[in-house]
Amino acid sequence: MNRSRPAPALAERLQTLNHALSRDLGGGPRPWKLAWIVNAQKAGTFLFLALLMVLYGNTTSAAWVYLALHGSYGLVWILKDLAFPDPAWQVRVTLGGGFAAFALVLGWYWVFGWLLIASGEVPDYPLPTFAWYALCISLCIVGCAIMIAADAQKFFTLRLQPGLITDGMFRYVRHPNYLGEMMIYGSFALMVWHWLPVLVLAWVWGGVFAVNMVMKEARMSRHPGWAAYRARTGWLLPRPRV
To answer: Which H or E run contains 114?
Structure first.
C-alpha cells in the first residue's frame, strides 16, 4: 500500500478549525455524539416548519411544497441513519461543540424555511410557479436517491472489503454522496429564492464540504489504483470523455 499524499495546508487548517468548533469548543465532558445533534435537527425539521406555517398562517403552495421537501428529507435522513449510520458522525463532542455545530450550520438550514414561510407569499420565481416547483422537487428527489445509494454502497462495501471503491455510484464521480446533498439543499435554496440561503450554502459547501472532500482524497491516495481512478473520474460531476 502506498503512503498518503499530504493534504493541502489550507484544507488541514480549515478542518482543524471546524473540528475545534463543532467537536471540542469549551473543552470538558463529551456527553453526546455529533450524530445526536444532527439527527435532532433533521427529525425536528418537519415539525418546525409545520409550526411556522401555523404561526404565520401561511398556507401558500410554496409553503406546502417546502414543508414536503425539507421536512421529508429530514425523515429520510433518520431512516438512513437507522439503517446504515455514518461512522464520521459517531464522534463524541463537548457541550460547546454540540451547540456550535447547530449554531454555525444546522440551525441556518431552519432559517431557509423561516424566510419563505414568514414572508406569507409565493416568491417571484424566474419561471412559472408550477415549472419551478417541478425543478425543485426533481432536484430534491434525485439528490436523495444519489445520497442514499452512495452512502449505502460505501457503508456495506467497506464492511466486507476495505479500500478504494471505484464502481457503482463511485464509478464516474468520487464524491456522489456530497453531490446528492448539494442537490438537496440547492433545491431548498431555489424554493426560498432569497440571497441568504445562497450565502449559507457557499459557506457550508466551501468551508465544510470541499474541505472534507480534499482531506478524504488525501487519505484515499494511499490505496493502489488511486492515481488511475482519480484521472478517469470527476470530483462531483463525471469527467468529460475525450
So the answer is: helix 107-119
Q: Kindly report whether the global pTM for this prediction surpasses the value 0.90.
A: yes
DSSP 3-state of 92: strand
Report in angstroms the alpha-carbon separations of 42 from 28, 107, 180, 185, 218. 26, 10, 16, 13, 30
CA distance 89 to 87: 5
For cell 431512516, what's the residue?
79
92, 33 contact by CB (below 8 A) = yes
If we measure between CA atoms, which residue out of 135, 148, 154 comes closest to residue 180?
A: 148
Per domain, the residue ranges of the chain are: 9-232
Q: Give dist(CA 88, CA 2) in Å, integer.
A: 24
160-210 per-position pLDDT tens digit: 988 999 999 999 999 999 999 999 999 999 999 999 999 999 999 999 999
Q: Which residue has the cell 410554496?
A: 62
- Among 75, 47, 67, 238, which Cα is nearest to 144's? 75
Any residues with CB less than 8 A from the CB of 216 and at least 6 apart, and which? Answer: 175
The CA distances from residue 113 to 66, 163, 181, in Å, are: 7, 40, 17
32 bridge partner residues: 93
Which residues on neighbouring strands pair with residue 216, listed in sequence order? none
Measured between its terminal Cα atoms, the distance across the chain in Å is: 30
At 13-65, the pLDDT tens digits run: 999 999 999 999 999 999 999 999 999 999 999 999 999 999 999 999 999 99
Q: How many angstroms separate the CA atoms of 19 and 17, rounded?
A: 5
Q: Going by C-beta distance under 8 Å and a sequence separation of 6 or more, which residues neighbour residue 209?
A: 178, 181, 182
